[in-house]
Design brief:
The chain has 74 residues and is an all-alpha fold. 92% of the residues lie in helices and 0% in strands. It has 2 helices and no strands. Helix 1 packs antiparallel against helix 2. It starts with a helix and ends with a helix.
Length: 74
């Protein structure tokens, strides 16, 4: 579980850093779609950590249930 959390955290950090860098690049380039890209970046910077948390939470629940079933069988 610890290894999975570390991998997901690293992936999340890389994605969020990429979003922020792309937002800065769009701001400097004065792109026509800057507001759309900014809103997408803000949305993703909230959703990505929530999805990572939800994945780890569901994984814990599934793992806990399977451990309880194994204990009950023995």
């Amino acid at each position: 579980m610890k290894k999975i959390k570390q991998i997901l955290a690293i992936i999340g950090v890389i994605i969020l850093a990429g979003l922020y860098i792309s937002t800065i690049v769009c701001a400097v380039s004065a792109s026509e779609n800057f507001m759309n890209m900014l809103m997408t970046s803000i949305y993703a910077s909230v959703i990505i950590p929530v999805l990572i948390w939800a994945y780890s939470f569901i994984y814990k629940l599934i793992k806990k249930d399977s451990e309880e079933k194994n204990t009950a069988e023995h």
